[in-house]
Amino acid sequence: xxxxxxxxxxxFPIFEQTxxxxxxxxxxxxxxxxxxxxxxxxxxxxxxxxxxNIHRGVYELSERSTAAFEASREKVRRFIGAADARExxxxxxxxxxxxxxxATFARARVGSGDEVLITHMEHHSNxxxxxxxxxxxxxxxxxxxxxxxxxxxxxxxxxxxxxxxKLAAFAHVSNALGTVNPVRELVELAHREGVPVLVDxxxxxxxxxxxxxxxGCDFYAFSSHKLFGPSGVGVxxxxxxxxxxxxxxxxxxxxxxxxxxxxxxxxxxxxKFEAGTPDIAGVVGLGAAIDYLTGLGLDAVTxxxxxxxxxxxxxxxxxxxxxxxxxxxxxxxxxxxxxxxxHPHDVGTILDRxxxxxxxxxxxxxxVMERFGVPATVRASLALYNRESDVDALVSGLQxxxxxxx
Length: 406
Ligand code: PMP
Description:
Blueprint: H1 5-10, E1 18-19, E2 22-23, E3 25-26, H2 37-50, H3 60-79, E4 88-91, H4 94-109, E5 115-119, H5 128-137, E6 140-144, H6 154-159, E7 165-171, H7 183-192, E8 197-200, H8 212-215, E9 219-223, E10 234-238, H9 240-245, E11 256-259, E12 264-266, H10 280-296, H11 298-317, E13 322-325, E14 334-339, H12 344-353, E15 356-357, E16 359-361, H13 366-371, E17 377-381, H14 388-404
Parallel strand pairs: 3-15, 5-6, 5-7, 7-8, 8-9
Antiparallel strand pairs: 1-2, 4-10, 9-10, 11-12, 13-14, 14-17, 16-17
Helix pairs in contact: 2-10, 3-10, 4-5, 11-14, 12-14
Bound molecules: 4'-deoxy-4'-aminopyridoxal-5'-phosphate.
4'-deoxy-4'-aminopyridoxal-5'-phosphate (PMP) is lined by residues 93-95, 123, 125-126, 171, 175, 200, 202-203, 223, 225, 364.
């Protein structure tokens, strides 16, 4: 499928404006992505034509709202290649998905002396829930190291899987480094020892096709807002047999079948994990985002972004005093860097004056910063609506930074 970048940009109303008097150059999609018109339209349409609470009403509006909500579940199923729509749990985002697994599945399996294995490149939301769990259970958090390019050291990961390991959790794609992990291989290593695997897919799904059955993992988590959908919604995919065996997470309406003061019984999956009124329009918006991406063709997006990432990598490498952090052989859409003698926040502030939005800071991955000996980096992250001129603007902006700090 060919990729028409100008048509794509026209789908995103946000690019119709200027910021700081300059055309907007948005290079922070790893934090949150912009929204195409079909996503906004789908939410508008739901609110203006079919909105009511779901799974409850016997009247037509509620039936329509429920149908739109459940249609999104089926879209997500297809999008990630899940076997069954019952395996798709709607949550608030990746963070909640990981907390859900930590508080239920892992809580029931991890005891004193056990271990949970993560990697050194994780986002805080794939570190802290395991840390809390380990503290509560008297278990130990083990961390597989990364090399100087930011690639996972596979042999070390393998060595850290022992009979004590009760779960492994790692990112598909690192938000701070852009490293793409060989998920299938890692899952095989873990499964060989009977260790279940959670994959944090927050930074993967916007950039590449994902098939959870092919990856072979046990859980996969992602957020709608990084996938061009609305914020406040995310997905936990889990194998049906796990979800069925897991105790509930949050409790209240919808997740129950029967309630009495003596005892309550649980609804079927996935509803058992969807207590309370969900973000109905958000879920519908996520469905529209998936339709949008599928319409463009994820393989076309991946190919387009690969060329753009190569272009950007070469352009930044040519800047004197710029150190790229995260140069793993297999990378996606993220360029983290440090500029000699200039604090990342100053870089970000000067770039902002040029209308260029980048992220500066530790990117919720402080252990990565510590590993590379920097307090923070500047991060330019690319998405399907970026083009070479955005990269050129970044390079000119960095020249401007040099002039200011000469
Ligand atoms: N994991 C990774 C790799 C991320 O990049 C992010 C978001 N920065 C998260 C988890 C958390 O996602 P959310 O804030 O949407 O819950």
